[in-house]
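Title: Comparing notes on inverse folding

I've been comparing how different people in this forum approach sequence design from structure. To keep things fair, I'm posting one structure and asking everyone to reply with a full sequence. Here's the target:
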């Protein structure tokens, strides 16, 4: 599903109006109707008698609020409208819908002072729902004054809040919140998904997210020049590699996992087992010689390869010729899980990568080795996938974690372009960025996955899908979605607190089965007016 910024949405609205001749007031009417449908869903279809308070600003977002008010009144709801501007400030379609409400004799209150807020506070006591139609996708900066106080009042009211298009106070382009912001129970956005609703911290203010169809022509949607996407079930199923009925273990790819050090055999074990679970035909784990026997005991289906080691029982530079020879027989390589920060091992990692031509996933301390010389990445011959968490990305860039988290999408994209590699910036709402500027955002997963080994499982899954023939971008995005969904299935079953990386391996087959079944079902192409996103 396509993701847009506020400016991109503005241009698409204009294109719908100017190129296709759809009047803006029609778009506004459809937006209001989609919001009313979502409100009806919140109340199980019963709107009559519900006390609903609508807070409208002076722009088109406020106009949407006026449309919502009209339809709710017609449905028998007890509606009160509060406006944060003077009537003469309204323009265009918003003004028309305001005047319709006046003709319907709907009382519209204004909010300008602290005394007005006191009246709102009393009224909220008797409300069933608040509708936030104060600011739209063009908002930037921080709310202040009476409107900031109003938002704080709405948040503290304890009433459910439905945000129209985007919670007021949230920036559509980045998801950043620079002051008071509506904490919505539910947000109904229109036409296209907005970036800020789907990334952190914006997603925390969005609540349930619905996408409403406002009658944009299908051609407008299909031809929209957008390079940001939200991964959904259908897309992940499409990416999933087909299984040749006549295939064998050699058909489905051979993955080499390079890693392990004393006390860190678990990381390479998890990555290797994840590669198998994700469909690879054969997996070989290459580890320091003294750890090989441990790996033989910990794994059954995974083959092992003992390598020359340092005095600290990490992989030695002397392993380079053997590793390169081994890699020639492989379809994909994963390097880094549990590999350690030994300087000699770092040297091995860089020399190996500089000569490698097979697709490679660099994870964990493999990334730490690259952090010594980030410019080295763009010179690599092999197709590269980097899988840093925010701390590892901060080390690669020499910045703080806070700076990494401030604008994850644009940071991941710029790094992917600079390093000529696919960058998987892990964390809540993992970002997958390609060198050509394409971005995929993932919304599966949960806080229970913040546990040791979770990233090793993901690295193995990416390597497995690479070995099965997916491109680095497809393999990364598909693996991230499935990895997060396995975490969600685990959380549903055993809760978030108890979830471990090993549990992800246990729930991955269920997820892949879901996607396989989904892929096989032939579905008619339908266009739903209201779609639940998360």
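Reply #1:
Here's my take.
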């Amino acid at each position: 599903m396509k993701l847009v910024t506020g400016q991109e949405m503005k241009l698409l609205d204009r294109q719908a109006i100017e190129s296709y001749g759809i009047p803006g007031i029609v778009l506004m009417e459809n937006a209001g109707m989609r919001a009313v449908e979502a409100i009806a869903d919140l109340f199980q279809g019963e709107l009559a008698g519900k006390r609903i308070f609508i807070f409208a600003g002076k722009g088109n977002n406020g106009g949407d609020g006026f449309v919502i008010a009209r339809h709710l009144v017609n449905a028998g709801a007890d509606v009160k409208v509060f406006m944060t501007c003077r009537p003469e400030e309204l323009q265009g379609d918003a003004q028309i819908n305001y005047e319709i409400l006046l003709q319907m004799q709907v009382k519209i209150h204004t909010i300008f002072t602290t005394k007005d807020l006191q009246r709102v506070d009393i009224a909220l006591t008797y409300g069933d729902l608040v509708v936030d139609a104060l600011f739209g996708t063009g908002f930037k900066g921080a709310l202040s004054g009476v409107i900031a106080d109003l938002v704080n009042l709405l948040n503290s009211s304890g009433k459910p809040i439905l945000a129209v298009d985007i919670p007021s106070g949230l920036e559509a382009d980045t998801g950043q919140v620079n002051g008071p912001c509506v904490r919505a129970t539910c947000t109904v956005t229109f036409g296209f998904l907005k970036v800020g609703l789907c990334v952190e911290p914006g997603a925390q203010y969005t609540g349930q997210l619905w996408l409403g169809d406002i009658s944009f022509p299908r051609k407008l949607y299909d031809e929209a020049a957008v390079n940001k996407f939200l991964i959904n079930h259908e897309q992940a199923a499409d990416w999933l590699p087909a299984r040749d009925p006549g295939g064998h273990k050699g058909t489905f790819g051979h993955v080499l996992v390079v890693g392990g050090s004393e006390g860190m055999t678990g990381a390479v074990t998890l990555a290797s087992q994840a590669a198998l679970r994700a469909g690879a035909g054969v997996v070989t784990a290459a580890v320091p010689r003294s750890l090989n026997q441990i790996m033989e005991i910990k794994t059954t289906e995974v083959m092992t390869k003992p390598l020359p080691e340092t005095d600290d029982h990490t992989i030695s530079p002397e392993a380079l010729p053997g590793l390169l020879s081994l890699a020639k027989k492989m379809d994909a390589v994963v390097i880094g899980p549990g590999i350690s920060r030994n300087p000699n091992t770092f040297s091995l990692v860089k020399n190996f990568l500089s000569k490698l031509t097979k697709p490679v996933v660099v994870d964990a301390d493999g990334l730490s080795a690259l952090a010594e010389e980030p410019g080295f990445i763009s010179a690599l011959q092999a197709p590269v996938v980097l899988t840093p968490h925010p701390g590892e990305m901060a080390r690669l860039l020499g910045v703080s974690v806070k700076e990494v988290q401030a604008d994850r999408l644009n940071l991941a994209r710029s790094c992917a372009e600079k390093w000529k590699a696919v960058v998987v910036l892990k964390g809540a709402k993992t970002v997958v960025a390609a060198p050509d500027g394409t971005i995929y955002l993932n919304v599966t997963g949960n806080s229970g996955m913040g546990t040791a080994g979770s990233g090793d499982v993901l690295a193995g899954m990416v390597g497995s899908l690479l070995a099965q023939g997916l491109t680095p971008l497809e393999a990364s995005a598909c693996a991230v979605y499935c990895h997060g969904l396995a975490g969600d299935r685990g959380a549903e079953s055993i809760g978030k607190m108890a979830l471990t990386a090993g549990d992800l391996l246990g729930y991955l087959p269920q997820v892949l089965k879901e996607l396989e079944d989904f892929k096989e079902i032939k579905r008619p192409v339908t266009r739903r007016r209201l779609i639940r996103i998360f």
